[in-house]
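Schema walk-through. Below, the input block comes first and the output block second. Nothing else is stored per chain. Lengths vary across the set, and this one has 136 residues.
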Amino acid sequence: MLSVAAARAQAEGDITMFNEHAAGALKVERALHESFFRHFGLTPAGVAATPLAPTNLAYTSYLLAVAYGSPFHEAMAALLPCYWIYWEVGKELERAGSADPLYKRWIGTYASEEFGAVVRAVLDAVNRPVSWLAAR
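--- output ---
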């Protein structure tokens, strides 16, 4: 979805931002998830063979449909919760605290100022005025 959004963007800053976010998601989130898989003794093949939950499949299918079939500003609006919810949940869980080191790693990733800067950049892009003629 992030790569498709980058490809559909018209502003150079949006192209760069979403391409960087796609690369960052592959690097940071994949490393985080793979560390959890190792902790629980899951193999890459076992994880890959596990079907998506119906809700997850519906959500990711929706995101891809919007990315490919809707104007760029609608794709950004569909993507925004992916960022903003994780940041807000991460911050709230950080305030609550956790004794579990696995939860602490997840919380630390999404409550971090670094991730907050990413979320604020997307919020700024979403809040920027849209040229309706260019958005079509």
